[in-house]
Amino acid sequence: MPALDFPILWLKAGRKPVLHIVGRDKVELTDGGLIDHVAFRATGYAEIKAKLTERQVEHRKQCLPEIGLHQIFAKCDDGTWVQLIFDPAEITAD
């Protein structure tokens, strides 16, 4: 697991991390309530980014080269964010 600068608990299925819970000093509601986001590994970065833009879905990108991740966060109508995680090798230009 990557070293992060905040408390985090990883839940695993066997050796594969499937869920993480982040520690906070206080509970804060997000636009979507207590669930801030859900995450999925994805492929097709350019195509997905183009579809989100075309459909005017609020989204933002985040690149974390120190842990080998390139992400898109897309906002659902209820305020919850969907985090799509891409292999940085797939990203040619952004």
What report would you give on this structure?
This protein has one helix and six strands. The chain has 94 residues and is mainly β. A hairpin with a 5-residue loop joins strand 5 and strand 6 (81-86). The protein is globular and about 35 Å long.
State the main characteristics:
mainly beta; four-stranded mixed β-sheet; single chain; 94 residues; two-stranded antiparallel sheet; globular
Offer a concise description of the structure:
By secondary structure, this protein is mainly beta.
| Global Rg | 14 Å
Q: Could you spell the SSE succession in H and E letters?
A: EEEHEEE
What is the strand tally? 6
What strand line-up does the widest sheet have?
A: 3-6-5-4
Helix segment tally: 1
The geometry reads as globular
First and last CA, distance? 26 Å
